[in-house]
Amino acid sequence: MKPRLPPILLASASPRRRSLLRELGVRFTVVRAVRVPEVHSEHLTARELSLVNARRKARAVAARFPGHLVIGADTLVSLGTRLFGKPGSLREARRMLETLSGRTHLVVTGVCLMRLRPYRCRQFAAVTAVSFRKLNRAAINDYLAAVNPLDKAGAYAIQEHGTQLVRSLAGSYSNVIGLPLDPLWRVLAAWNAPGRLLRSRARPRASPSPSSKTLIDS
User: Fold this and answer.
1) What's the pLDDT tens digit per position in 119-133?
2) Buried (b) or exposed (e) across 148-179, using 16+ Cβ within 10 A?
3) From residue 99, how far is each of 42, 59, 63, 94 by CA, in Å?
4) What is the pLDDT of residue 213?
5) In the predicted structure, residue 201 carries a pLDDT above the cut 90
6) In this predicted structure, which of 74-83, 140-149, 193-202 has the lowest mean pLDDT?
7) Helices in the chain by DSSP H: which ranges?
8) Phi and psi at residue 69, in whole multiples of 5°?
9) Chain centroid to CA 59: how far?
């Protein structure tokens, strides 16, 4: 049974997140968070930074639609203490792929669900470990010729020719695309039961998806 929810707004222009949210079978409208520059800070972890930016996006849209349930999300790639957002140029995209080559990095997506009237806010971060193949110059050139990397954290998209880059992953596939569906479904299912997280409730599935390491905040 689908949870009874307020009208849902997705605060993202990403077609990938839009497609993923449709898999949950909930009705929603896309309202882009405009004039919300992303925060960048070397003093915050990938989890902290993704949650800050997800909350800023959700809050910007919720301020315009206080009675709606707004979903904001932000995805980052991290390798050790180094964070990778969207590259600003093809040269930067190439450097990112060269750095990630042959190594295992983390993809972190922060998600914020917010309603201002009456106020309620839940947020969580999901983490997936992604191991890259060893990439030579030709492999990187081929990938950059096939995919536009400039709107993608870490300069790649696992769903777009991802097998050229990725050797394996541990965690949620949908999280790497940009929206971790399993924890999102649990939070939506528990939205009208504050204080409870329905971990056992199954979500509708369009395709198999491994579970992710997920941290839930109030």
Assistant:
1) 999 999 999 999 999
2) ebeebbbbbbbebebeebbeebebbbbbbbbb
3) 18, 34, 39, 9
4) 44
5) no
6) 193-202
7) 15-22, 46-62, 90-100, 137-146, 173-177, 181-189
8) -95, 115
9) 17
Measured distance CA(197)–CA(210) in Å, rounded: 19
Residue 39 pLDDT: 84
With residues binned 3-state (H G I as helix, E B as strand, rest as coil), the percentages for the chain, rounded to 5, are 30, 25, 45
Cβ distance 30 to 12 under 8 Å? yes
Q: How far apart are CA 88 and CA 90, in angstroms?
A: 7
Report the CATH architecture of 8-217: Alpha-Beta Complex (3.90)
Residues 53, 74 contacting (CB under 8 angstroms): yes
Per the annotation, the verdict on 182 as an active-site residue is no
Handedness of CA 194, 200, 25, 170 (dihedral sign): positive
Which position among 74, 142, 182, 217 bears the catalytic label? 74
> What is the per-residue pLDDT across 5-33, written as a single tens digit (0 to 9) for each?
999 999 998 999 999 999 999 999 999 99
Side-chain-side CA neighbours of residue 65 (13 Å): 19
Mean predicted confidence (pLDDT) in 160-179: 96
| pTM attached to this predicted model | 0.86
Categorise residue 130: left if φ over 0, alpha if ψ from -120 to 50, beta otherwise: beta
State how far the Cα of 144 lies from the Cα of 51, in Å rounded to an integer. Answer: 29
